[in-house]
Amino acid sequence: MPDPLGRDDVLRLFSIVPLLGDEFIILCGTFLHDSATETPRNNYLISASDKFLAVDKMCCDAPVFLQCLPFVVSGTCRRARCPQQHVTISNLGHVQYNAHVAIHLQQILILQLLYFACPSTKQWKSMSDRIDRLCEALNPPLFIQGSLVDLDLTLIPHGSAGLRVVKNWTREFLYKLDPFQSPSPFLTTLMRINSLIFAFDRNDAPAYIAQAKCVARNISTTLLLKADNRYLVLDMLNLHRGVTESSISSGILYLQ
Prior knowledge:
The protein is mainly α. The protein folds into 3 domains: 1-38, no CATH class; 52-152; 177-256, no CATH class. It is built from 12 helices and 2 strands; from the N terminus they run αββααααααααααα. It has helices spanning 8-13, 31-38, 41-60, 69-74, 94-117, 124-138, 159-176, 183-200, 205-209, 213-216, 232-241, 247-255, and strands spanning 16-18, 24-26. A two-stranded antiparallel sheet has the order 1-2. A hairpin with a 5-residue loop joins β1 (16-18) and β2 (24-26). The longest helix has 24 residues, at 94-117. Residues 41-46 have low confidence and may be disordered.
């Protein structure tokens, strides 16, 4: 994401004097200076972060983030107050798909900026919700809604920056995943993370996936197929990697 302090007009507007590196001076008597000195920094950041997280939660439930499937298919919806967006088939296409993905990437970028400014506000639940919603936007259930082949970063403001954040988040999640959780949530989360990893970070994926604790160690016996002691996680990874003759059969075994 572009650095706002790299623009001269922003520096003049807020009376900011840049120094070497990432340091700068805020002149006395300015709005920023008065705000920073009158309100303790930690309290200010916590107050701002609480407000943003509340807005972020509200955005997760906003209709624009989800499309109503019955309306897409039939053009009608029987729900009196549908919590999802009504999009007609005629409006679906390349541009609409990327606009939908862009909304999710923008929210991820905003959330990342909050975590960078105030690391103590970092919440895995919010990050997980954003990753889940992004996966749904990238891989919608109906083919007429688009697919990854429609992704065009030239149509998404700061799309490349958003994907860099997604790469970092998926790595963090992969290292954090606990295979000793109940199998269903663990495997569902791992499947979504892997789909993003192999879609946007395929070249580097094998190296750091091998270091994840759910792959390299702590193998949970509940995730072993009893017939031949096949590890479901490895079947899933082989499926997403898709470079060997056994990739398809691994996917079938995983689904079974």
